[in-house]
Amino acid sequence: MRVSCALISVLLLVAGTCDTHAQGASVEAAAKRPPASLHPMPLSVLEAKARAMLSAQPRVSLDGEGNGLIAPVDDLEPSGSGRVPNYVRAFSGRPGVPASVAHLMRVVLYSGSVRPETKMAMGIRVAQLDNSPYVAVYMEHMLRATTGGTATLARLRSGGEAGLSQEERMALLYSTAVSTNAAGIEDSEYRHVRALFDDSQMVELTLSVCFFNYFTRIANAFNLPVESWSMAFAAKPPEHVYAQPAARVAVLDDSRLTLLSKDEASFKDAEARGQSSMGIGLPHGERIMLWCPDVPQAWWDYGKLLGPSVTLPRIFMRYTSLAVSTANGCRYCTLHVLLGLRRAGVDPSKLLEMRTDDSVLTPDERSVVEFARKLTRYPESIVDEDYRKIVGVFGNMGAADIVLQTGYFAFMNRFNDAMKTPSEDLALQNYREIYGADWQPSTPARGNTPSDR
User: Fold this and answer.
1) At CA 96, angle to CA 127 and CA 201, rounded to 5?
2) Nearest CA to 346 among 432, 430, 441?
3) Which of 86, 136, 264, 397 is a plausible cystine mate for 127, CB 3.0–4.6 Å?
4) Does residue 284 register a pLDDT over 50?
5) pTM value surpassing 0.90
6) SS3 of 86, please?
7) Using CA atoms, how far apart are residues 54 and 231, in angstroms rounded to an integer?
């Protein structure tokens, strides 16, 4: 069942029953459970949890030297403060990545034409849905940087969302809908939001929701300690004052792909990557992202720097991707990943069996799938035992790679199905060859109940 406009308006999914993750349960079957009751967690609860996480034991090393990890232009903290957030320190063992992830955060929040404070509020809403104290408190820290952000935060804390602007309220509703329905929202729901935002802003909003679904999973799985300063101080005020654009944008067509000329080398890298891994060139999803070119550019730069530090074999990365995409019921990404798995040499008969039974997987493959599925559906439920299990199989870097790939597809699933990205012809053909039929949608399950953990 997808969220209806009426249900979105009260931020509540219809209650349902979830079964358990039996060892032989299929990834796709896991996506067919009815949705469970899901409420945004009150900020007061998340703030109390954040205070308890000031001394949390991280599951990744944060020991890297803080100086020089963030380029001055991307530093969101006052000059000389010495504050380096733990989500940046978590990448200190991966050359170049800390600076790139800091740049990505700045671009997500401060580029584009949607008010930064609106996007910060969206981050809080995703944190409320995913029970992520770290992300909630960090976005509060960012909101305190401006007078308008402080007012928005006060309304979010009090539950007085009626005092928010119409655009802010709609952005929060959209955050809830996309976060809880990775397989995409209904056309009527999309049009409801589109009435207030132009095409470029809709892509920007969708990218923002997807990024925060990535961020919550990284923060929760890595068990990032909350920085004491993020609860006590404000971030650095933005250098540029936001100005709402007066003009609307035209529908993007092939002739408008001149947007890509902003960084021709990066585009060629992305096109070559898609061609080598799946034979499709630049994927449709990445073409759509270019409506809001700064964010995908920063996202691709981050991925390019992250890639050399990845130790998990590519086939396990792809099994992670499939587990996330099928658990979320994402049409576009499921077809995309199946094509990649087949081109990597996985027998179509194995892919067919995987649709109904995990037992066809090796023990190592199954450990990846089970962890990725759990982090996808219940990001707040990852405990030390879960993380130790994958560290025992893949080592510290490999375990972190699984977390990062799960978060990556938390981003991509929501973006592609929210935007109704059309599948490439080759991906559709591959799906038909494996399953003997066209794509059959399944109902994604998503809740914050402990019944299947």
Assistant:
1) 45
2) 430
3) 136
4) yes
5) no
6) helix
7) 10
Do the Cβ atoms of 124 and 140 come closer than 8 Å? yes
Cβ(59)–Cβ(224) below 8 Å: no
The yes-or-no verdict on residue 442 having pLDDT over 60 is no
Q: Which two tokens stand for residue 445?
A: 């399950």
CA 94 to CA 381: how far, in whole Å? Answer: 26
Nearest CA among 392, 394, 373, 384 for reference residue 310: 394
140 backbone dihedrals φ, ψ, rounded to 5°? -60, -45
DSSP 361-414: S-HHHHHHHHHHHHHHH-GGG--HHHHHHHHHHHHHHHHHHHHHHHHHHHHHHH
Q: How far is CA 151 from CA 19, 40, 293, in A?
A: 42, 20, 30
Rounded-to-integer distance, Cα 414 and Cα 217, Å: 14
pLDDT band at 241 (very low <50, low <70, confident <90, very high): low
The pLDDT tens digits of the residues spanning 22-33 come to: 333 443 443 343
Residues 6+ apart with CB under 8 A from 445: 16, 18, 30, 31, 32, 33, 34, 35, 36, 327, 377
Residue 449: alpha-carbon gap to chain centroid? 20
Fill in the amino acid letter for 196: L
CA distance 84 to 99: 11
Reported residue count of the chain is 453
E strand or H helix that includes residue 237: none
- List, for residues 32-47, the tens digit of each pLDDT value: 433 333 678 999 999 9
Amino acid present at 126: V
Cβ neighbour number for residue 55 with a 10 Å cutoff: 9
Whole-angstrom distance, CA of residue 8 vs CA of residue 30 = 23
Give the position of tokens 């699933």: 413
Distance CA 413, CA 184 (A): 9
DSSP 3-state of 163: helix
Residue written as token pair 């560290």: 391
Decide: 93 and 309 in contact? Cβ < 8 Å: yes
Q: Is 198 exposed, middle or buried (0-12, 13-18, 19+ CB in 10 A)?
A: middle
